[in-house]
Amino acid sequence: MSAAAQPARDAASFEMLMRKHNRRLYRVARSLMRDEAEAEDALQEAYISAYLALGDFRGGAQLATWLTRIVVNECMTRLRRSARRDNIIPIVSAPAMHNAEEEDAMAQLPSQVATDTPDVALVRAEIRALLERKIDELPQDFRAVFVMRSVEELSVEETAECLGIAEATVRTRHFRARSLLRESIAQELDTAERDAFSFDGARCDRIVSRALERVCLLNR
Description:
Distance between the termini: 27 Å
Number of helices: 10
Number of domains: 2
Shape: globular
Order of helices and strands: HHHHHHHHHH
């Protein structure tokens, strides 16, 4: 990989990198950890791991995909550690899809364009809160795939690469996740899903600030 393509290992450049990918990576962490504070901690630790490993990045995958894999690995490590403490297995295996045509036959819900009236904004906020609760109730396998595919709108290929699973498994889990959510929230799904797990400026600044403190210590 050329020097020009290599991500820079200085604090200013790394801050730009974090801000560029922060929302996506937080949403992935949040989908796995099911807790905002745990997701922030996992993401910050993943950033430090990424910073230390920047010299090993060779461009075999997109930088965003490489970062996502680091976040997923950090979250899974934390979940396994927690599972050992609680003697609970965190992964729930996905049931097999009966046939490939089921996903193709799944009709998309109609999109609804909301106006900026206070009443509509309140309804959308309530739907988003409901969706987030329902996402948290999904089995972990389904939850991570749903957030990557429906919330972050990653491709099947990139989702599979990030999670280290087959593309067919991504399709199956995404189908099952949406089916489960449809049972609870029906027509509200497509309206609310892209607003799930909001990422405000204060959270972005907090994550970047904490990670930068660690980066500065590493540079001394």
